[in-house]
Known about the structure:
The protein is α/β, with parallel strands linked by helices. It is 52% helix and 11% strand. The protein is built from 24 helices and 11 strands. The strands form 3 sheets. A 5-stranded parallel beta sheet has the order 2-3-4-1-5, sandwiched between helices. A 3-stranded antiparallel beta sheet has the order 6-8-7. Helix 8 links the parallel strand 3 and strand 4.
Amino acid sequence: xxxSHNTVLVQFVAGAVGPSSLEELAASSRTRLVQRWHAVGVPxxxxxxxxxxxxxxxxxxxxxALPEFGVVVLEGVLGAGKSVAAERQHQQDIAAxxxxxxxxxxxxxxxxxxxxxxxxxxxxxxxxxxxxAVRGVRLVVDGLEEPxxxxxxxxxxxxxxxxxxxxxxxxxxxxxxxxxxEVEAELRKTxxxxxxxxxAALMDRLGGDGSALQSSPMVRSVLCRPLxxxxxxxxxxxxxRLPHSPIAFLDALVTRALRDVGGVKEARAERLIxxxxxxxxxxxxxxxxxxxxxxxxTQALLETRLVVRHGNRHLxxxxxxxxxxxAGQALLATGVPDEVMQSMELLDxxxxxxAMAIASGGWESVRRVIEPLLRSHPGVAAWATHEALxxxxxxxxxxxxxxxxxVVSRRLxxxxxxxxxALRPAGGHVFLHMNGAGSVTVDAGLNxxxxxxxxxxxxxxxTPGLTIPATERWTEPRGVRPLAGWFGSVATDYGAxxxxxxxxxxxxxxxxxxTHREFDLTNCDAYTRERLWLGVVFKGQIQSMMEAMVTAxx
Length: 554
């Protein structure tokens, strides 16, 4: 269709008007970069200088050799710079199209910003600039995992199917994602972290002290991601102490941003921004400004730099991680909304918010988030717990928690019981194969961040305790022998560490049971069928062996 009237009509039906010239595309890309850097504390002038320097945030050499056509997934952890690198590639695609009218049409989409088919959305955006059927498309899809793993897998499948067809043969689709989506190895490129020298140079350029990378391995591991190197430089300018974990860096960034809010009290601003995060997550990244607060309150949120306008009437976060962070804070304050609990699609969008809540909350606040979730969606609770906490225990950045053995045991007992109830019927059989154990109890204690833990058989209402030293706990005092035990460091900086520890213990036990087929599930049709099937297979193997032996003898 041609003609301005028809074009306006199509845009109205689609519900959004995209850039209709390469100059507008380039300006939008530059604005996104400036907003991203300004949101994490970079002064506007410096953010603009960064945006105008194509080398800042460009695709590293080891991943820059992109194929001319097909699908590429740029995978990287939180804060690794993959979105900025993809934005730089988008700018290169714009530059190529500016010098060659036959070059593929550049298009950029955020995965959470549209519903329906990826190719339809990209084709619509491309037609504002040319004929994609003739020229092909260079498409960047940012945040493939943000709408959830189900939607992310669907979008990836659409991209692969389209580029494998004759109609999509002239398309290249570059998507960014955090680790976790199932991506074929030949499609994946991993975004490398900064080297120590690169991270130090970035911090020095922003007025920080790059020598901080030599302070501790934990600090260095966080600062080697560009996002946290920038935040770290700002913390140093405020004469603050660098934290050890990504969530603590975000805490410091948010504390300073809210402290500078004018016209609205800090607590009120925090509640408003949490409401905005909830609305954005449930609404695909945008929220109507009128639904958030008064014009004055809206202006106060914009002054934090964490929130930006989208058009005249909508608000959004400058970085997706900020949306996820404040969604996590909202969950800690009010729990998981019923509408989210009842919708798998919404729950998928809230996954990283759940992980942020678990990473930043204390024992009680995390318990209020996890326990209701366990009753309805134990798999989501397990994923969020696994995502939230480090898989290797870091050294504590603050004073060691002073918890008595009784408190440690009760918290671990509560978390273990909750996981076992949620994982029924399997959860209730984890320890049954060991000497006929029924209910179990936890005996544990902390020495700094070193945990000793034993699972004991519960004798009626009596909970036996082991009174011998922890180093000798594998002996058998008075006939009480531990069913399982664990010794080692735990991430006591995180209030959710008992949930992580007991989940890891159960996961290991369930893995062993499944590997060795030692479940004993009575009145379970699936279990019975599997045992019968194994019997048939075993019988067939024996028969084949006998026939082979007879043939060999003959």
